[in-house]
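dude i think i finally got it to work??
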Amino acid sequence: MKTFRFIIKNKYLLITGLMLIWVGVFDRYSIVTRIHDEVELRGLKQQEDYYTKMIAQVKKNRDELVSNQQTLEKFARERYFMKKDNEDVFIVEK
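look at this
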């Protein structure tokens, strides 16, 4: 009880404690805000990794498509339903 009374009477300790609470909880750069920002940063880094992998996969598919004539023809037939002049195309849906 005596230490509590000492803290209340000592204005320097009281102001220091209030400032630590203010900076830790209510300030713009508080601990709560920092934790929230760190969680958001981790999520954004995961998205960056995902999109980097997807870009590499798309580039690989594009290079394969451009370099191989058979792959290009298969892609055109499947995606855009293109055909040769002497062929008929039948679309079968599951």
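The chain has one domain: 2-80.
im so relieved honestly
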